[in-house]
UniProtKB/TrEMBL annotation:
It comes from Euphydryas editha (Edith's checkerspot). It comes from the Eukaryota. This is Reverse transcriptase.
Amino acid sequence: MVGDININLLSGRNDPNVDSYLNLFASHGMLTGHLLPTRLRNCLDHVMFKSPNCLVTLVLDTDITDHAPILSFCDYKVKFHPVRRVVPRLDIASIVSHLEQADYSPVLTSHDPNYATNVLIALISDTITNNTIATIIPNKNRILKPWITPGLLRCIRNRDYLFRKFKKHPNDFILKTTFTRYRNFCNNLLKKLKREYERNEFLRVKKNPAKVWAFIKKIANLNSEQSNSAELLRICAKP
């Protein structure tokens, strides 16, 4: 979120709107991108963001307008992480219920702000941990390849569904035509996206010979261990 909000973030405690404004964005996991003056000595133009990547914000010192222009850069390179088989899920209703019934007297009666902060953080962390459930993700919803998108995964599942339906009714000409066209479309799309991904990965590492050969072995499936035939030959007396 970028815009001229007219709330001076540099005013501190002098402006009662600052705390409620920052708390509102913090409740959604968004942080301010800079605390630099954009008009005179006031920080009125804000950049609020939520991203695991790095964000750099520049305030340009120019007289084009009465407000200094803002320029933000965000690293868009995201590494692919396959969806895990078991993922933690938060029971939000249970967490809210436990927090409403919790005893906050040690926090409210303490005169040491550091101690009160640690107690509050420990209380919230323990509540979240105790109300986290391990959920098994079905194989049909897992993405194991970096070039497969959620939409393409649905396309694959629909292709498989049409195949099973066609197997039950092999004499249905309309169903056969629908499945054949959809299968060809889905397979061609899979091949296209895979080739684009491999091409982009190759261009990314082309200046490093070691990484080039490692990538070639990866796409050619040369990293898999070869099984030894000695154990198979020892099963019987004669090879």
